[in-house]
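[retry 2/3] M50 family metalloprotease: previous attempt timed out, resubmitting with same input.
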Amino acid sequence: MNTLLWVLAGFIAYSLLAALLRARGILPEYVRVQGPLTTVHTRRGRELLDRLAAPKRFWRAWSNVGLGIALVIMAGTFVLLVYQAVVILQNPPAPTQVNQPQNFLVIPGVNDFLPLSVAPEILFGLLVGLVVHEGGHGILSRVEGIDVESMGIVLLTILPIGAFVEPSEESQRRADRGGKSRMFAAGVTNNFAVTLVAFALLFGPVIGSITVAPGVAVSGAYAGSPADAAGISGGDRVTAIEGTPVNTTQELDAALLATDAGTVSVELDGERTVSVTRELVVAGSVEGNPANLTVESGTDPIRVTAVNGTAVSTRAGFESAVGDSRFARLDTSAGERTIPVGAYITNVAEDGPLYNATGTTQPLIVSSFNGERITSSTGLQEALDRTAPDQTVAVEVYRDGGFETVQVTLGENPQDGNGFLGVNIFQGTSGLLLTDFGTQEYPAGTYLSLLGGDGGDGGGLGSAFAGSPLQLVYVSLLLPLASVVLGIPNFPGFTGEVINFYQVGGPLGFLGGGVFIVANVLFWTAWINLQLGLFNCIPGYPLDGGRILRTSTEAVVSRLPVDDPHTVVRTITTSIGLTMLASLVLMIFGPTLLG
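[retry 2/3] M50 family metalloprotease: success.
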């Protein structure tokens, strides 16, 4: 039984037990149970709300700003959800990890994007979000003269997950529409304020106190590769090869290519040294590669023992054996294969520089670039790094069983300003990931750059997204879903083995490892509060957005010459609410049911 089923079974058992206790009158009146949710009510604390609500002019101005923001978000949410629903109906996408049922539950360890390791930070952020949200409703209730029946906490079974304020329904009916709208908007206003404060602290002194540690961060080693056999695994940092310091993947590749020795000395974390016995393996492959080889994830790699009749054990030996030949005959553990040698292009962007020269978006192999022999993706990238935008170069490509040379006028690479082909390049040679080492890099610098820090030479994708604070917020919100959105591993925060890839200094250096805890708390507090605010702005009852929609609709309809305004209001709000519900269901389940 998987984790989700265990959780559901626990919820059902708790709900049945609570229903039994309530039926027998064992539960006190101030404890109410609805399924796995338990609320504990109290009338204490109302005097505190009255004291907090004393500066009424401030709270009204504060909530008026929040109401305006909420109305804009409500309209934007409505348009976006309806648009997405129409797109899904017209062209259903393939389901992704996001569409799995467990990933709609904000439960660490159950949700694939919320690891158990950050459960305390997520729970803290959720508690803060719910307290300030309900506290906002309570304070504005008293500001607008609305009585508060009770206050309390909300439990998910026995876990506290938030707080609530219960305004009097009779007082709400007597209050004017403006007062009620401000009261309904107060919760999301506070959530957005917490988000801004948390992100400001995170992007400022906290991230400014974190830098990337020396070496190449390792997210893992390919199964059966030399690095795997030597015990190198996720969480390690490769800091030197044969005594040569390395800080980037390019430096690591260069150090390995510089020697054809069968065994190399590898320094890890600047502290310990291991010996890696090299052999040339195919650790990965792209579909449709000319060798017709397939390497499944997690399975042992295919071994390459000879190239053009010459025994090889390293990539340097591979390139030496290939020489100037356009083709290579490989002796592998899966049999003999003959392939054209070059950098494999998986996709050519339409209207990009290479497309303009070849007229195709289909995969092809680049075997020569600007007069340089190209045998791998590394060689092509290095050649591109030596070019400039608008430069015209000769590119030899292999497609449809033959070689041809085209003249390409390069564009500008948005990440580094160098020449740009407008292609996706598969790592390795001719659609095969050939390696004599076998580690997979963790993009530590990229994540730090995406959070507004200094990612150094490893910034990569992060440098391309660097920009305004709003852009930083947008990208940060995507980090827990990075594998789906950005094509890199998900980033849950500075936890576990990931901490080994960073070091602390700067203004908060005196906190030591505590900086990582502060960063995680701020990150998840901001993330969850923004999610709460946006979700509650959806214009559907019983969310705050639905309640604001009702009061706003009443205000408009009251000025129209209609005989039955209540029916008109109900028709409008119910129609919008049902449209929102249908759109949400399509967004969540549409890809699985229709894709």
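[retry 2/3] M50 family metalloprotease: The chain has 18 helices and 26 strands.
[retry 2/3] clearing retry counter.
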